[in-house]
Amino acid sequence: MSTLPPSSPVRLLLCDDHAVVRAGLRALLSSADGIDVVGEAATGEEALAMAAHLNPDVVLMDLQLDGGMDGVAATRQLTARGRGPRVLVLTMFDTDADITRAIEAGAIGYLLKAEQPEELFSAIRDAASGRGALSAPVADRLLNRLRSPRPALSAREHDILAQLARGLGNREIARALFISEATVKTHLGRIYGKLGVETRAGAVAVAKERRLLP
User: Fold this and answer.
1) What is the pLDDT of residues 90-121, one digit of tens each?
2) Can you name the residues that pair with 86 across neighbouring β-strands?
3) What's the CA gap between 65 and 128, in Å, rounded?
4) Do residues 13 and 42 touch, judged by C-beta distance below 8 A?
5) Fewer CB atoms inside 10 Å of the end CB: C or N, the chain?
6) Cα–Cα distances in Å, from 201 out to 9, 41, 124, 155, 166?
7) Minimal CA–CA distance to 154: which of 196, 208, 100, 191?
8) CA atoms of 207 and 200, how far apart (whole Å)
9) pLDDT-based confidence at residue 163 (cuts at 50, 70, 90)
10) Max Cα separation, the chain?
C-alpha cells in the first residue's frame, strides 16, 4: 500500500446497502476538501468489483450488507491484495465482536455513524496516509479489553463451542456431551461473556476469527 502524496485528493469508494445513506454521505463528503468520491457500492461483491477498476485509496465500508458477502468478508478480500485500498469501517455497531472481526480482517479504522463530519473527514485522510482511526467509544472498548482481558475458554467450553459450530441446539449438545441442558446453558453464558458476544452466531463467528475452532 503506497502512501498518498499530500497534494493528491483521496479517492474514496462508498459501500453501504442503503441508497439514502450513500446519498447522504456523498453530499456530506462533497463539502470536504481533498476527498473525491469515485464510486458507490451497495454490496460487498460490488465493492470488490468496483475497487478493482476504480483503484480507490480508501473504501468506506459498512459492516451489515445485503447479499452474500458482509462488510467483514469484503474487507478481508480487499486488504488481502496487499496493494489494495485501505478499508475504513463506518457502522452503527460497536460490539466487541464486530470491532474484533473488522480489525482482524484488515480494517485500518473503525468509525461509528454518529461521528461528527470533521472527524469523518480527518479519519478518511488519515486512512489514505496509512494511519489508523477509531471512534472514541471504540477506542475505549479496546482499551478496556486490553486492561481486562477475558479468560481463556475451558476444555468443556471448547467442546460446547465445537458442537455449536455444527449447528446443534442445546438439547442436541447435551446429548452429544452427556450433560444436562441446564449445564449447556450455563456454559453458553460463560462463552458469550468471554467472547464478548450475545448470540450463538456471534460466538461461532468470533471463535473462527480467533482460530478457536478446528
Assistant:
1) 999 887 778 888 998 999 999 999 889 999 99
2) 58
3) 23
4) no
5) C
6) 40, 26, 31, 20, 11
7) 191
8) 11
9) very high
10) 66
**How many Å apart are CA 36 and CA 115, to the nearest integer?**
20
Cell numbers for 154, please give them: 475451558
More confident residue, 82 or 75: 75
CA atoms within 13 A on the CB side of 163: 21
pLDDT digits over 190-205, tens only? 999 888 888 999 899 8
Q: Is the pLDDT of residue 36 over 50?
A: yes
DSSP secondary structure code for residue 109 in this structure: E
Contact 103, 74 (CB under 8 A): no
Which tops the pLDDT comparison, 174 or 98? Answer: 174
Helix/strand/coil (H, E, C) string of the chain? CCCCCCCCCEEEEEECCCHHHHHHHHHHHCCCCCEEEEEEECCHHHHHHHHHHHCCCEEEECCCCCCCCCHHHHHHHHHHCCCCCEEEEEECCCCHHHHHHHHHHCCCEEEECCCCHHHHHHHHHHHHCCCCEECHHHHHHHHHHHHCCCCCCCHHHHHHHHHHHCCCCHHHHHHHHCCCHHHHHHHHHHHHHHHCCCCHHHHHHHHHHCCCCC
Give the global pTM: 0.69
Rounded to a whole number of angstroms, the CA Rg of the chain reads 19
What is the CB neighbour count within 10 angstroms for residue 75?
28
What's 57's DSSP letter?
S
